[in-house]
Amino acid sequence: MIEITTSNSTNVNELLFAFGNLPAEVKVITMTTPTPPSFHQNKNGSHDAFTLIELLAVITIIGILAGLTLGAAGAVRRHGATSTAKAEVAALQAACDRYFADNSAYPVGTADPGTNTPAGATTLFTSLLGSENLTIAPTSKRYFEPKPAMVYTNVSPNFFIDPWGNAYGYNSDGTNAPLVWSTAGTTKGETNKWITSWPQM
């Protein structure tokens, strides 16, 4: 009995030809499947591993990409908050003008533009909404319909807040056009970064 072992099916006929015309019962052909090399196995059969420098390079690249992504996301959020605040300041100013058209006076508020306390903001809220709370039906004409996220409801009366969670500032003596502003999440003294209803110098 002749046993032929090969890992290549194309060699079978060649191997049989080499033995000549043998009876069928003595021909046994065994096909073997070559074992694939394991991951990171080199030609010598030994296993390679990542070097420390390769690992550090990959980690550094991942860190740089993550930093760029987070930085861009932060810039997009800041830009979105700024755009929202500008739109809300303009909307509050327009609501004050509608209030003036009906009452011949603006809501009176005495908030100091340097403190951003809600004193003037609560006056503005009650005057424009006709009630002290967003969920209470107005007792007078409503001049402004805020989004729920724009209203701080944990105290009564409520007041308007900007996208950074601070009270919108408001100041008017009732006769002159009111000042409406957002501190844009800045610390005290950075008035050049405020978002205001008056022209910035």
Please explain how this structure is put together.
- This protein is α+β, with helices and mostly antiparallel strands and 201 residues long.
- The chain has 2 domains: 2-31, no CATH class; 84-196, no CATH class.
- It is built from 3 helices and 8 strands.
- Strands 3-6-7-8 form a 4-stranded antiparallel β-sheet, with helices on one face.
- The protein is elongated, with a radius of gyration of 39 Å.
- It starts with a strand and ends in a 5-residue tail after the last strand.
- 21% of the residues are buried.
Strand content: 5-15%
Query: What would you call the shape?
Result: elongated
| Helix content bin | 25-40%
Low-pLDDT residue spans: none
Described by strand count, sense and barrel closure, the largest sheet is: 4 strands, antiparallel
Write out the strand line-up for the largest beta sheet, numbering strands in chain order. 3-6-7-8
H/E series, N to C?
EHEHEHEEEEE
In DSSP terms (H or I, runs of 4 or more residues), the helix count works out at: 3
Rg calc: 39 Å
- Could you give the distance between the termini? 103 Å
Number of strands: 8
Mean pLDDT: 80
Structural class: alpha+beta
Domain unit count: 2
